[in-house]
Structure prediction request, 493 residues.
Amino acid sequence: MADLDVTRADAVLIGGGIASATLAAMLTELEPDWDIVVLERLDSLGAESSDAWNNAGTGHSALCELNYTPQDVDGSVSPAKAISINEQFQVSRQFWSHLVENDRIGDPSEFIHTVPHMSFVHGMENVDYLRRRHEALVANPLFDKMQFTTEHAQLADWAPLVSEGRPVTETIAATWSPDGTDVDFGALTRQMLAHASRTGTTVSTGSEVVDLRRMGSDWGVMVRSTATDAIRVVRAPFVFVGAGGYALPLLQRSGIEEIRGFGGFPISGQWLRCTDPETIARHDAKVYGKAAVGAPPMSVPHLDTRYVGGKRSLMFGPYAGWSPKFLKTGRYTDLFESIKPSNVTQMMAVAPPNLDLMVYLGSQLAATSHKRFEALLEYMPDARESDWEEVTAGQRVQVIAPDQKKHGVLQFGTQLITAADGSIGGMLGASPGASTATSIMLSMLEKMFPQRIETWRPTLQQMVPSWGTKLSEDPEQAHRTLERTADTLGLTH
Prediction:
């Protein structure tokens, strides 16, 4: 490395998505004198899983996602995970509000809009489940505006496209929450990194990290220019790996003990996107249903209103697929190169307990375009196939984690990995990562900078006033926080 161009920084953040953008926005306030470097392999920011067309779910707050409220064998519905995810989303809303209030970022309508969140089911058994779910959640102040119905007339008011063409004799149920939002995480990422850049952070696109090595008390981050193939090294005592699916191979290259045993299982996807402006204008909701047996959480079907570049869109899906790539712009060798002696046992062990997932993925891969359209008809009976086009979604790499017996467990969610000395950390996994990125980065700060966290605490609590408390246990604070962030972000409430 002695002959290479070597520069020094106080912290290097790998990846130009929502995770690195959030951490950069925080660090510029916590340590304004630090030299922070953000490295992104693509020529644009927020273009992989943070991009609005790639993201499997935008505005995840557990208001409508049924996989966060499992039903026990006795029929009861546990709200704990849904409440936890909503708590984390409120942390994100507070941080975004802080950035808006202090002119760190611009017009919030460029990245967030009010979009009601709905759950929709049919059949007696599912209706009973949704009623129990509503009863379990509505008692909580974060969910107390949620409404429940089994009436077709009410469904027609909330979501006319879901109601039209549906037999009035069909047994249906739906919930509706006015607190739902749609978030364009690609736009938000670019706003936050633009703010960080204005305050001294170096944001380098076209910069692919090809290796991570210890250099004394620092990390040497080896960077290849995608334009010229020139290699340079950035030395820093702290490194965060927020590179989406590439976080796993980069952490493996670092050689830290904490990544041993971890693997990844990539899942791709497709959307149907509406091309008819009149249809798009008639639907204003995210309508989630129940996942098929074996389906990963990111593949829960939904009829989804989104705002991309300020323009309203309507999507349905995602339909799961498979590719060995770890990023949409990744390489077909990604999965195979990630298999190491330290994780091969775990990678092999996940197959037998997840045969239903394999069967589900096989059925999705075999499905024709017309078969995929038939799935849309369950949510929109009067849909016309000519009004929809197929769009490729982003890649997700689900975490394969070692358990106490050194076996592998396939996890659906996000996981932090940090070295024992706090010098390097990364985020693995997928949904609901973008929506909960602020909470994840606060946890990362606590793990990587335990000696600084108390000094930072007053500033962090200005960013997120509820940090360290639970809004779900304080109705007055919960309602006050929801109203304040809604006003700041230009949301209806």
